[in-house]
Design a protein that fits this description.
- The chain contains 14 helices and 16 strands.
- With about 450 residues, the protein is of the alpha/beta class.
- The chain has two domains: about 325 residues, TIM Barrel (Alpha-Beta Barrel), CATH 3.20.20.80; about 70 residues, no CATH class.
- Strands 5-4-3-2-1-9-8 form a seven-stranded parallel sheet. It has a four-stranded antiparallel sheet with strand order 10-11-16-13.
- It is globular and about 75 Å long.
- The N terminus is likely disordered.
- Bound molecules: alpha-D-glucopyranose (GLC).
- The site of alpha-D-glucopyranose has 8 residues, from loops.
């Protein structure tokens, strides 16, 4: 009797005084058999040429879709809402309990991505909130345990592959829900001006070893149960005091696992392995226009800029600073002119749809790409001895030896050029109509064609 009373009191303390600990305990999975340890291979012996060859499909593609989708689509005020508003797991639980994206039709998403001219897609399998978009056997914090009930990743992968796009997964290293993930300076339950000692105290009883194994088990699921996965996008590291870096994640272990399970997979640079040979494939400048092609170790790097339509990655209902179609086209063209890729983000709604603002922009881009994608796919920077005419952006297809002059500001009948001796023939790209030229000028019609950014395709000698 006494024992029962003690247990009852202990239970009461657990559920009332320590709700988070209780939840944590509930969520902690029974010890699962660890993932089989595969033969690890970092491509540290890969030459630069071999790497470029492995990544050729990606470099040629130039344009992909990022999708940030998770529970945070419901509060609809930024995917970091749990952090920004310092919400506890209990505060956040209402989103899990009511997650029901009944209008989710990934075939529609995939069609819109293809029609916009995107060649690959990267979806958040788990964002920092910790919610999993697939039927992971290592947690109950997943879509199949919500009213949604569907394995969203399974349907997503099938639909995008059917439209011919390459498929990638974003996987958050941060996890604001897992009971063994230690609280750090990026966590919703961070301590203002907390010292390492404060954090150590706060994290008593948490075991990052368990979390590290959890990540490996989940990455193994993602990279073995959904066919060929072309990209894995780990996000992100913040080493230093009360932060997390390569040792906290076991970044090398994760990377080796990914490379082993999916040979050829393209990996981003956010595992905190920049200085490790073979530690990353692409630089990922975020929400910024680079001044020129980024370099690493004195050599030009393969890179991809990820960008939002507005300021938020997750669906944000009230955010009004959306980029226009011309701005987005310029972003795409400029990225390619500096030898990079653009990963453009959509944040679907909690019902599972791309909202009208996103659809309008994708359609606008698609309209342009329909007639002008030749200046994007397989293209790169112009040869160094060809200077860009005023108010234009140049791209170049080395295999076809064609130069693309993008008329960002439409000229008044003529465009001064300094490379006339290199031109064999020139035409508008959108309709294949001849553009005459002489030693000094390309002659454009005074009336701007009905194309957002007209492009002159120049066949070089
Ligand atoms: C940042 C943010 C995140 C977003 C990502 C996209 O790391 O934490 O919300 O997913 O950038 O690049």
């Amino acid at each position: 009797m006494k024992r029962i009373a003690t247990l009852l009191i202990a239970g009461l303390i657990c559920t009332t005084l320590l709700p988070q600990a209780a939840q944590a305990q509930k969520n902690r999975k029974k010890a699962e058999a660890p993932a089989p340890a595969p033969e690890f291979t970092l491509p540290s012996t890969e030459t630069r040429e071999q790497k470029l060859e492995r990544m050729k499909w990606w470099t040629d593609a130039r344009f992909g879709m990022f999708i940030h989708w998770g529970l945070y689509a419901m509060p609809a005020r930024h995917e970091w809402v749990k952090n920004k508003e310092r919400l506890t797991n209990e505060d956040y639980q209402k989103y899990f309990d009511h997650f029901d994206p009944d209008l989710f039709n990934p075939k529609e998403w995939a069609r819109m991505a293809r029609e916009a001219g995107m060649k690959y897609v990267v979806l958040t399998s788990k964002h920092h909130e910790g919610f999993c978009m697939w039927d992971s056997k290592y947690t109950d914090y997943k879509c199949t345990s919500t009213p949604c009930g569907r394995d969203l990743i399974r349907e997503f992968v099938d639909a995008f592959r059917a439209e011919g796009l390459k498929v990638g997964f974003y996987y958050s290293l941060l996890d604001w829900h897992h009971p063994d993930y230690t609280i750090d300076r990026c966590h919703p339950q961070r301590i203002d001006k907390g010292t390492p000692e404060d954090y150590a105290k706060l994290n008593e009883g948490k075991d990052m070893n368990v979390y590290r194994q959890y990540m490996k088990d989940q990455v193994t699921e993602l990279l073995t149960q959904y066919g060929k996965i072309d990209i894995i996008w780990f996000d992100f590291s913040f080493p230093g005091e009360n932060g997390k870096g390569r040792d906290d994640w076991d970044s090398e272990g994760l990377l080796k696992l990914a490379r082993t399970l999916q040979p050829g997979i393209i990996v981003d640079d956010r595992l905190d392995l920049k200085d490790v040979k073979g530690g990353w494939d692409i630089l990922t400048p975020e929400q910024t226009k680079v001044a020129s092609c980024p370099t690493w170790d004195g050599e030009k790097a393969t890179w991809e800029t990820c960008q939002t339509f507005s300021g938020s990655w997750g669906y944000h209902r009230d955010e009004a600073t959306w980029k226009s179609v011309p701005q987005l086209l310029e972003l795409l063209i400029e990225t390619v002119s500096k030898e990079g890729n653009l990963l453009l983000n959509v944040g679907p709604t909690a019902r599972g749809e791309f909202d009208q603002r996103a659809q309008d922009r994708l359609e606008g881009i698609g309209k342009w790409m329909h007639a002008n994608s030749r200046s994007i796919y397989g293209c790169t920077a112009a040869p160094e001895d060809i200077p860009a005419p005023e108010r234009t952006l140049l791209t170049y297809n080395p295999e076809k030896n064609r130069l693309y002059v993008h008329l960002i500001d439409y000229p008044l009948g003529q465009l001064r050029i300094a490379f006339a001796d290199r031109i064999a023939y020139a035409q508008f790209l959108h309709d294949g109509s001849e553009i005459k030229f002489d030693k000094e000028f390309l002659y454009t019609p005074v009336l701007k064609p009905d194309v957002e950014v007209p492009v002159i395709e120049v066949f070089l000698k």
